[in-house]
Structures are given as structure tokens and as C-alpha cells.
Input
Amino acid sequence: MALGPRLDIRQTQSLVMTPQLQQAIKLLAASNLEIETFISEALEANPLLDTGGPADPGAEPERIEIAAPAGENATADQLMLAGGGEGDAPLDLGAVDRDFDTGDGAGPNMRDAEWGAASGSGGGDFDDMPDWEQLRAADITLAEHLEGQIGAAASDPMAAFIARHIIGLLDEAGYLTVSLDEVADDLGVDIFDAKAGLRLVQSLDPSGVGARNLAECIAIQAREADRYDPCMKALIDNLDLVARGEVERLKRMCRVDDEDFADMLRELRSYNPRPGLAFAPAETCTVVPDVLVAGNAAGGWDIAINEETLPKLIVNRGYFVELNAGATNKESQGWLKEKLADAHWLIRALDQRQKTILKTAAEIVKQQDGFFRRGVAELRPLTLREVAEQIGMHESTVSRVTSNKYLACARGTFELKYFFTSGVASADGEGASSAAIKARIKALIDAETAKNILSDQQLAEMLQKEGFDLARRTVAKYREAIGLGSSAERRRAKKLAGAS
Output
């Protein structure tokens, strides 16, 4: 059989991600603030686009009204058709009655864990510590504050030079995170000179900066307060035992009685484990809600898009007519038509984005009605697939819609992803969300007394009586996820708190 080139005509179909479709997907996943930036860039690139400013206060915003539950199972599409709630009364977001999870499952910082356990609280909340309002960002940084003291405190130019280098290596809490050997190697100086520079830094205000670990930080402050006696030194050198609550062993090591040991614990609590934070730059991130939810007079919910941050885009018809009259060649006419098509597409894409967000938020509010009425204990298990099936969209679309989007209600401001939680079986057959289980475990532990510490097995039995089908290991997993210690750790912590 002879081989040779030939031409064939074939007709095929395929899905193609056009640039416009890709852009629409990006818009769907973007937050309101990102959309505002995108619109600003579009206004600069397209002369036919114009803004009518933020949504008119008198105009009726796009909204959905969900009636109070009365046994009917309306779909989100039906809710969309039945939209048209009452006037957009402003939400009082200041009076927040929010139930929230106390932990995100992440392991605590080691310094926080040591110091929290040493205080007998397990969470680092100390009555004797400086007010956290005082730890907000100052006008100057920690490095500037320390360098301003070098001139008056240093008598040796070499020590001052090394101290300035060390100041640049301190972390935001005021700790030196590199070894003195590295400092000496970097500067080409002797290790004794590096130690002299470090001593100079540790003599500056605030007391405790330049420490290489928590024990050294506390020891510096104890020396400053003239309380670094052999007993306090033994206590500071064994902070790990303080964290584990081994009171009797510590008293033997320090050679003190109960009263003296209680005084030493109070003294220990008065020291600042992270002195540099008073000068740390504030990293504030303002969350602007995309969806507003408020109760209405009929007992249902009014759900509206937050249009305060979104300018209203329009096509400047007058400018288009003017440019069209001056377009005398095909190139200019083609460019003008392209810009007009881009403007129309962007307006349609933004309108579709708002409708999709509103539709998704309406279904979430409907599914989590108990949460909005009674709090986190009523948060039910919910998946992206369930919402996608109800609103007739793909699961990936719901995932994009709920990314970087926030919902504001009377209980606070929540990311839309917050309402999608895993669950466990319950007696009523509907199941309970992991967030609700965590909240209940925390409530039970908060209510326990020093003489009646609940074990994980006891917690599991109490939850089973309430209708939650949980094993002991599951209770332990949830307890650890919200940052609560075991029964032995809590018993020691409460014993330490009682001793002080």
C-alpha cells in the first residue's frame, strides 16, 4: 500500500476556555475589594465605561427575602422569583452576639504555650499582664526605639556597633533568633565582643529584649526588678515544670513553702514574655462583607448584596456617539466596536456575579436557619455539593462563589466557607456540625470545677446523652482542635491557679 500526503476535512466539537470565560471565572472568585480594583483598571483601559458612583441610597438594592420556615421546602430558584424584601434597614454590626470557635486546629506558639501554662490559664490571659490596648503599634518601631538609647548607654564604640547589628536581628517579640557565633562570624569579631554587644542590648528598654529564649527574657526582667534570687532562678530555669503544673516538685527545688511559692508565681505572671510587641507594626486587615443578612418583620430574612463598595458601571453613550462620528476608517471603527463589546460584557459579567452570590447566599441562609436564629450550636453539616444541587450549579462554581466572600449578620461577620462544616451523627438523624460539637465541648469544660475535671470518656458519655454519637477519640480530637488540654493538664492548671 502506497503512503503519501493527503488533505482531510473533519468536524469536531470541543470545550474552549475563551479569555472572556476565564475572566468571568476570576471575577466570580474575587472579593468586593478585588472587584473594586478590577473596575478601576477597566475604567482606565476602556473610555466607553463610566461609573454612576456607588449604588443610589434611594434605589432598591438587589435582594432576596426568605420567609420564616413554615414547613414548605422552597428552592433557591423559587426564592429568587419571590424576591423583593422590605427596605434596606442598616445593620447594627457593633452589637455583635457572636458564638464562635475558639480554635482553628493550629498548634499554639511554643512561647505562648509555655507562658499560658505557667500562668495557670492555658491560654495566656493574665490579669497582671499589661492591657492589650497598650500593645498596639507605636509611632516608632522597636529597632528605632532601641537604637535611640544606644548612644547614652554605650561607652565602647565596638559594643555599640555590635548592638546595632543585633537590634536588626531581633524578631517582633524582641527575641534574638540567631546564635552569637553567627553574629561574631558575620561581623568578624571575637565571641566575647559579641557577648558584650548582646549585654548592651539586654540593658535597654523595654526590659527583656535581646533574650534568646523565654527563660532568659524572664530572668532579665527579674534582675531589673531585683527579684532574681536563687529561688526565683530555680523557678525560671524550670519553666517546663511550671507548664506541666508539677507544683510539689517545684516547691522542693525552690525550697519554699506554699505562701512563698504563690508569691513567686504572681511575680512570674507580672513579667512580659514578649516585650517587643509594644512596638510591633499593626497588621490590620479590614473585612468588608459582600452579603448583608437581616431579619425582617415577618420573621424571615432579607439578604442583600453590599453595594457600598461597588461602583455602578454604565456605558457612556454620549461619548460613544461622539467617537463614532469621528471614526473615519475601519481600524478606528473596529477598535470602537471592540471597546463597546468589552464594556457590555463586563457589565453583564458583574451583574451575573452578583446574582450568583445572592443565589448561593440565600441557599446557605436557608440551610443554616438555626444558626442565624440561635447560634453556633444549631450549625448543621453542609457541603458544597448540597448547595450546588439546590441552586442548579456546579460544585466548583459554588466553591468559587464562597471564596473570599463574607456575610454580615446580627451575630457577626463570617466567611461564607464558615457555613460548610463536616458533621457527626445525632439522635435526630440530621447530624450536627463539627463547629457545634466543639462549642458544646468547650461549654462543658468551661463549666467544670477543680474538683470535678471531666475526662474525654465522660465528655463522650455526656454528649451521647445529648444525642451526639461520638467516640472518646473523636472528643479528644475536637478538644485538641480548640486548644484545650487533657483532663490531667487542666487539673494541674486549676491547681496552679488555686495556689496563686
